[in-house]
Amino acid sequence: MRKSPWIAAALAVCLGLEAPATADEPAKPQNAPPAPPTEDVGRALREAWPDRPEWLDMYTAIINDEPMGPTNGWFRTSKTQTRYDWDAAKAKYDRDGDGRVGRSEYPGTDDDFGRLDRDRDGSLTEADFDFSRDYAPSPGSILFSRLDRNGDGKVTQPEIETFFQKADSDGAGFLSRLDLERALPAPAPSMSPADRPTKEQLIRGLFRQEIGSLQSGPDLNDSAPDFTLKTNDGEAEVTLSKLIGPKPVVLIFGNFTCGPFRSQAGNFEKLHRRYGDRATFVMVYVREAHPTDGWRMRSNDDVGVSESQPQTYDQRAEVAQRCGELLGLGFPMLVDTIDDAVGARYSGMPGRFYLIDQQGRIAFKNARGPFGFKPAELEQSLILMLQDAAEGRSPQTAAQAAE
Hints:
Elements: H1 5-14, H2 38-48, H3 54-63, H4 73-77, E1 81-82, H5 86-93, E2 101-102, H6 110-116, E3 123-124, H7 139-147, H8 157-167, H9 177-183, H10 199-207, E4 228-231, E5 237-239, H11 240-243, E6 249-254, H12 259-262, H13 265-275, E7 280-285, H14 298-302, H15 313-327, E8 333-335, H16 341-345, E9 352-356, E10 362-365, H17 375-390, H18 395-402
Parallel strand pairs: 6-7, 7-8
Antiparallel strand pairs: 1-10, 2-3, 4-5, 4-8, 6-9, 9-10
Helix pairs in contact: 2-3, 3-10
C-alpha cells in the first residue's frame, strides 16, 4: 500500500500543522494565526481516537521532531504480543504459589530451563520475562558492533584476532585497560549527524513503507494470512499454509539495509540450530529500510552494504540473494512481491518476527523494529510453546488461556 507524498501535506492541514508550500501555492502569510503545539495535537489524537492507525502516531511524532526511540511514535503504540508471558508461565508451573518457578517445578529440559532463566538465579520469575531494557546499549552490544566488521550478525575468530592486532598497537602481545578504552570509546549519545534523517526523509520513508509498514499486521491469536512466495534463488515456491500443522512456524521478516536486523542474523541462525528439528523456520525478504536513494546510513556503507530501492521483483530477488549469501541463515529466504503484499499484510517492514502455532494462529508477535528486535523474547515463547506440545496441551487451549 503506497501513499502519495501529498497525503502528508493533507494530513498536516487536517492536524492543524504547518504544511510546506507547493509550487502552485504561496507560502503562508506572516500574520497567519500560529498552529497549535504539536505535542497538544498528539495528545488530543491519543485521547480522541483510541483505535487510530499506528502510522498516525508515527506521522505526528515526525512532525513534532520527537527522537527515534522506543517510547515515541508507533514504537510507543506497538507492543509485543505473546501467549507465553509471566502470568501464563506462573499459572502453569508455580505449583507452590511462591511467585517463582523452581527447576523441580518446570517439566522441560535443563537446556530449555537455562534459557528461560535469563538472570541465572536458578528459578523463573517475572524478571526473566521482562525484556523492556533489552535494546539498551550494553558492553556486549558495543563490543559486537566493533568486531562484526562485515555486518553479517556474527563475530568470528578471525574478526576477534583482527581487533586484537589493531588494539595491540605496540605489539606487546596483550591488551591493557588503556588499549581497550582507546579501542572501545564510550558510544555517542545518539546517531551520528551523517546518519540523522531530515523530517522530509522520514515522511517519505514512512509513506514509502521503508521505515515500517503502514499496517499493523495480524494480532495475537489471529489466523496467519496465507501467501505463496518464491525463494531468493528462484528455484522453489513456498506456501505458508502448507508449512502449518506438524510443527510451529517461526516467520521472520527483514531486509539487507536494515542494520539492526542484520545484527540479529547470528541469533536467528543459532535459534534454527537449536530448534530446527522442532519448528519450521522461514524468512520473507521485504523492501529496503535504508536504500541509497532514501535514508542512507553510513554504517551500511562502512560494511559494503549499499543498495538502492529495487524497482522490479528481479532486482529485489538479486539483492535478497546477496543478503542470503552474507547472512547464511540456514533456512529458506522468500522474496516478497514488488508491491509489498506480504510485508504490508504482516507489517513486516523493516523487520518482524512471528510464531505461528500448529493451527495457523499467531502465538507471538514482536513489537515494531528496530527497538522490538529481541530474538531472546521470541525464543522464550518458542520454548514454552514446544513444552506445551510435549505435555500434550493443544494450541487451542493455550490461545483460550491468553484471551
